[in-house]
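thought: fold this chain, then report.
action: predict
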Amino acid sequence: MGAVGRGETGGIAGADAAARISPQAMRRRLDNALAIRMLTLSTDEFPMLEPQAVQAVRVPTLPLAGARTPPVHDTVFRNLCAVMTQAEVQRVPDAGHGAARDNPGDFNRLVLDFLHRHGLTG
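observation:
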């Protein structure tokens, strides 16, 4: 990551400035670049869901997001959860947008706890 990320950032900020960027700041820049890339490649990056339709869901619902979800995705998640007042919202610790991949242990624990509470396991 280092050489590639610094090369990409160096093209914007200059090689000297890129060399002084902390690894954490570089990771944030690359995460933001990836989020922007995902949005531009999407054919319908923000499909419209009518709030009334979301509020009408009457089955147990568990919206999950990683605690470190990039801001562009976190805004959508928070807005959805604000409308889905009947849902049991959870954050997966130590995880980003790919919460199940980033922290499978906590992700699975949250999902299994939810399923057990609602009698949805065999």
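thought: worth noting. The two ends are 44 Å apart (CA to CA).
final: tokens above.
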